[in-house]
């Protein structure tokens, strides 16, 4: 290769220099567990939001977390994603990655994606550009918008569009999408970054029944390749997707099992599902 060709190769805009690409550490799931949370406690001004909480989630699982307001669901997600520091306990991603030793940005790079309840898509951009901006290894908005996509990246976006059911809306502005479509797009934006574990907060709040049904299909289709933890208050929705449900109460796990098992658990009936039972 002559000097000009070498320089051209080096400056290609469709590739990133290998030394700039963040290296995602492989998660050791040799014991089938992707998330180990043990003895986790978090206090806010003396109030125990999490109280010696233990949680184990298997690789590829779709787990639903339920619990009354203030049970500690958000605080648990906040500790896992590095947003909140705990007082004691441990949180491991697989057997080899100590989440408590990483900050929020590093945890996202490790392959843990989080979706908050309110959709936060770039409304002035198309669906396609939103996904482009979320590709793993993307070096910020400017380079994502100016650099040409590789074939592999285009294929990945196409796969995500297919998964989230927005193939025909790819050139629509995100701001023009329905509430449900925005939620799916945001899930797609997480998927574009190829996470191993997805934490999804109240995905069906504000959705029509039809949108909730499509969301159930979407989330169940993600399990297997991804591990998905869903925090949700809508019991009908939880029943439609959950294999294992974990019930939190006062910062600890109150019960765990199938929806039928937890709904028939006397402790759960007393503190949480009582009014429905
Ligand atoms: N930053 C904070 N400062 C003080 N108290 C907090 C803080 N964050 C959470 N809490 C308290 O900790 C408890 C657990 O809150 P958390 O948001 O984790 O519950 P949750 O199960 O997610 O509830 P919800 O379903 O209402 O979202 C609540 O009593 C809440 O008021």
Tell me what the structure shows.
There is one protein chain. It contains eleven helices and ten strands. With 277 residues, the chain is of the alpha/beta class. It has a domain at 60-81 and 111-271: 3-Layer(aba) Sandwich (Rossmann fold). It has a six-stranded mixed sheet, sandwiched between helices. A four-stranded antiparallel sheet has the order 2-1-4-5, with helices on one face. Helix 4 (127-133) runs parallel beside helix 7 (179-192) and helix 6 runs antiparallel to helix 7. The termini are far apart. It binds adenosine-5'-triphosphate. The site of adenosine-5'-triphosphate (ATP) has 10 residues, from helix 2. One of its GO terms (molecular function) is ATP hydrolysis activity. This is Urea transport system ATP-binding protein. Keywords: ATP-binding, Nucleotide-binding, Transport.
Runs with pLDDT <50, length 5+? none
CATH topology of the domain at 60-81 and 111-271: Rossmann fold
Count up the helices.
Answer: 11
In CATH terms, what is the architecture of the domain at 60-81 and 111-271? Answer: 3-Layer(aba) Sandwich
Strand content is: 15-25%
* Fourth-tier CATH superfamily name of the domain at 60-81 and 111-271: P-loop containing nucleotide triphosphate hydrolases
Question: Roughly how much helix do the residues carry, as a percent range?
Answer: 25-40%
Instruction: Report the C-alpha radius of gyration, rounded.
Output: 20 Å
